[in-house]
Amino acid sequence: MRRDKEKAVELRKKSKSYNEISRALGIPKSTLAGWLSRDPVSRKIKATLTIQAAKNSRQRIKNLIEANRARWAQQREKAREEAFRDFPYLKRNPLFVAGLMLYWAEGDNKPGNPFRLTNTNSKIISLYTKFLVDVLKIPKENIRCGLILYPDLSEKICLSFWSQIIGIPKTQFYKTQVIGGRHPSKRLSNGICMIICGNRLLKEKVFVWLDLLSKNLVK
Q1: 174 and 102, same structural domain?
Q2: Are residues 53 and 122 both part of a single domain?
Q3: Confidence (pTM)
Q4: Domain housing 35
Q5: How many domains does the chain have?
Q6: How sure is the predictor about 12, in pLDDT bands with cuts at 50, 70 and 90?
Q7: Is residue 77 part of a domain?
Q8: CA distance 173 to 125
């Protein structure tokens, strides 16, 4: 045992970690801690190894972030290429044009935000849903919705109304947001509906299509 301890001390002086010493000598880390934890040299080495481990961890995180950025950039570029390729065929479809115009006017046009459209008009929401499903081929089970209601509106009635309009179950609705005051007119008797698809690459395509369509229309 004495010889094992001497070997452990020698390896520790070479800045080996407990894991490395344990693997080299076949000694449990708990035993090594009993031998080395009070040794001043070992403590200094531990501090150095901790600092180095923190640096390595930061570098791994940095590398992961850079890899994710590169992968996302490649995916965005592929989505844009597909959008350019498909546009000549899609632009002949009136529903495609109508859906894009609705999104341009009522959708969330900030790149980092969800692919989301908000409106109070059930006909607009219904038409936009048809655009998502029939043109963009989004399965209805991938559509999520949220409601914004005034306190004097019935959440149960509004959920039933929009669930029927969109054709999805109530389980696909996020938690309802309630805002203060009373709704200013009966035009908001069903609240405000947000229809959301969590597909940022699809939103990237929509931006390309909007740009191409606007250029085609103003020629």
Answers
A1: yes
A2: no
A3: 0.69
A4: 2-62
A5: 2
A6: low
A7: no
A8: 14
